[in-house]
Amino acid sequence: MIDLPQAVEYPGRSNAFELLHRDVANLAGYFHKAGVTIDPITVVSDLAARYF
What we know:
single chain; mainly alpha; 56% helix
């Protein structure tokens, strides 16, 4: 989950996907410490395919 103060609208921000990737990578790093492996590129690609 990404908190709402960081939310940006895609059409208005050319770097929206970069921000999303950064946040997903940070979450992946956090959960990696707990033994959960998450590939940020796969997650961002899946989100893009579903919602954009």
